[in-house]
Amino acid sequence: MNQAINVEQLNSALSSLRTVRSNVSLVFETLSNGLRADHGEDGKDKFLMELQELLYIVSNNLRDLEQTVNALPIPVPFNLGNTTYLSQETTQDRQALYTQLVNSYKWTDKIHEYSSFAQTLLSQNSLKRSYINSGSTKRRGKLQSNHNVAPLQVDNVINNIDRSYNDMKITISRPFASNAVVSINLSHVLKAVVAFKGLLMEWVMVKGYGETLDLWTESRHHVFRKVTESAHAAMLHFYSPTLPELAVRSFMTWLHSYVNLFSDPCKKCGCHLHHTSLLPPAWRDFRTLEPFHDECKQ
Known about the structure:
By secondary structure, the chain is α+β, with helices and mostly antiparallel strands. The protein has 7 helices and 6 strands. It has helices at about 1-35, 45-70, 90-125, 135-140, 150-160, 220-240, 245-255; strands at about 170-175, 180-185, 190-195, 200-210, 285, 290. Helix 1 runs antiparallel to helix 2 (about 45-70) and helix 6 (about 220-240) packs antiparallel against helix 7. It is elongated, with a radius of gyration of 36 Å. Pfam families: Med27 (PF11571). Belongs to the Mediator complex subunit 27 family. Its main location: nucleus. It is found in: Nucleus.
């Protein structure tokens, strides 16, 4: 519908342009002919009146053309100022400057356009990792931040989770001052490392059971790279600033569901390996913990 309206407006603008060109040509034709015999004795006055009438028609046509063009959905022309005279240079090297300048203006305008779109989308994003209003000092003073938690409290939460599972071993280290780095061995299936800041989970990396575990190097196996992607999504899904201990326990429960990564089939297609990716179901539903292939989870 919008495309039909734009085509109609464009045809109207072209029609107005043709009318202007036709009437302007008529003005110049009248000027070139000058006084004619049919003007009579008062030929000069009649000639001026005829010319004035033609100019009045052209003026009206120009007004109609401007209104029609302004209604078209076309971008505003670049205001290059005195740099527009670069296009009139006679040397080829200087003429190239004008093209580069126009491209830089277009690139800058695109940056402004995309930035405004990003600002609009980000302002509508409700997935904030804190309920604390940065503009309210009173409220900030009342709520406890998940970043400022005593190491003993963090150890108690993680050790309680460790005692809940016989096939998942959790160890705590602190190579970066007081923040904990938790290593997880899940049976003989996988290893994972979770970086904490207080009780806030900041980073997760999942690897195969026989791989060297660290925070930054991805697994050499595609399946564990998929599990790492799912773990990042789960980390954000379970995050709760008001119930941080529940968030950590929920994430660990979700991660423990991968103990049957290579034995449980997909709940949707019923296959162990997907027919296109040839991967086991590397996604676990956040609520039911049921296994799905990435292609089957929608």
